[in-house]
Amino acid sequence: MKLATWNVNSLAVRLPQLLAWLAEHHPDTVVLQETKLTDDKFPVAELAEAGYLAQVFGQKTYNGVALLSREPAADVVKNIPGFEDPQARVIAGTVGSLRVVGAYFPNGQAPGSEKFAYKMRWLEALHEWLKAELQRYPRLLLMGDYNVAPEDADVHDPVAWAGQIHCTPEEREHFRQLLALGLHDAFRLFEQPPKSWSWWDYRNLAFRRNQGLRIDHILVSDVLKPQVASCVIDKLPRKNERPSDHAPVVIELIG
DNA sequence: ATGCCCTACTTGGTAGGA
């Protein structure tokens, strides 16, 4: 079983790259972030042609998430239940025996800003919801663009980024609180290349210089942890013409 | 360095991203 998460930064722009990537890797389930499409504009037919059903939760211009799967998704949830939010950031569904939660965490802009306060409220609500979701669905993955670099090892220049957005103590504490629910960072279950990032700024030749952050993550629940066969970041799509600034993260489960 | 790039949109500056 292969699953992936990818912040495509506009599916309207990136659809050809997504279709090519799906054809090459044939994952079973994929969550997308920053589709930036209202649901009526989602390319349902093109993805069906590629073999994927789509559960979509979009909005105009910003945000927007989707859950693509070869098998139908059941019990679909959009956004965090009980947390009023005009922004489309979460889509969850049950695919086979797995509960898949796809999420686009708020950016937060700058510590102390109103957007940062929203990020903190959103993270708190996510934590409370997942606590219940894990009780109901022990075989759970939380995958997406977290907009949090959990450790200094996830940052190309930890000194320059110290205290900056994605690297603040508050954000990292929220990440640890998710782990404390009984979740595990699948990428760190394996030895990985040093300087592994999932996002590189479009500016400053950042990709060519490998100056990035690891902010896209897949967390797996306790019972799934022994079934994780691999977890990798696929940097190749970042080398495309007109790439997303994020790379896909891919996980393989056995059993 | 409140700069750099990319996307969307009331299509020309602006907002937002990270």
UniProtKB/TrEMBL annotation:
Record-annotated site: Interaction with DNA substrate: H246
Q: Out of the domains of life, which is the source? A: Bacteria
User: Residue numbers for the site described as Important for catalytic activity?
Assistant: D216
Q: Which organism is it from?
A: Caldimonas brevitalea
- InterPro entries per the UniProt record, alphabetical: AP_endonuc_1 (IPR004808), AP_endonuclease_F1_CS (IPR020848), Endo/exonu/phosph_ase_sf (IPR036691), Endo/exonuclease/phosphatase (IPR005135), ExoIII-like (IPR037493)
Q: Which PROSITE patterns has this protein been placed in?
A: AP_NUCLEASE_F1_3 (PS00728), AP_NUCLEASE_F1_4 (PS51435)
Q: Which cofactor does it need?
A: Mg(2+); Mn(2+)
Task: Give a yes or no for keyword Lyase in this entry.
Answer: no
Co-factor remark: Probably binds two magnesium or manganese ions per subunit.
| GO molecular function annotation | DNA binding; double-stranded DNA 3'-5' DNA exonuclease activity; endonuclease activity; metal ion binding
One GO term under biological process is:
DNA repair
Annotated residues for binding of Mg(2+)? N7, E34, D145, N147, D245, H246
Q: Which residues form a coiled coil?
A: none
Q: Active-site positions, per UniProt? A: Y104, D145 (proton donor/acceptor), H246 (proton acceptor)
| Marked site positions, Transition state stabilizer | N147
Could you identify this protein by its name? Exodeoxyribonuclease III
What's in the keyword line of the UniProt record?
A: Hydrolase, Magnesium, Manganese, Metal-binding
Q: Which PANTHER family match?
A: EXODEOXYRIBONUCLEASE III (PTHR43250:SF2)
Q: Which family does it belong to?
A: Belongs to the DNA repair enzymes AP/ExoA family.
Endonuclease/exonuclease/phosphatase domain segment(s): 4-246
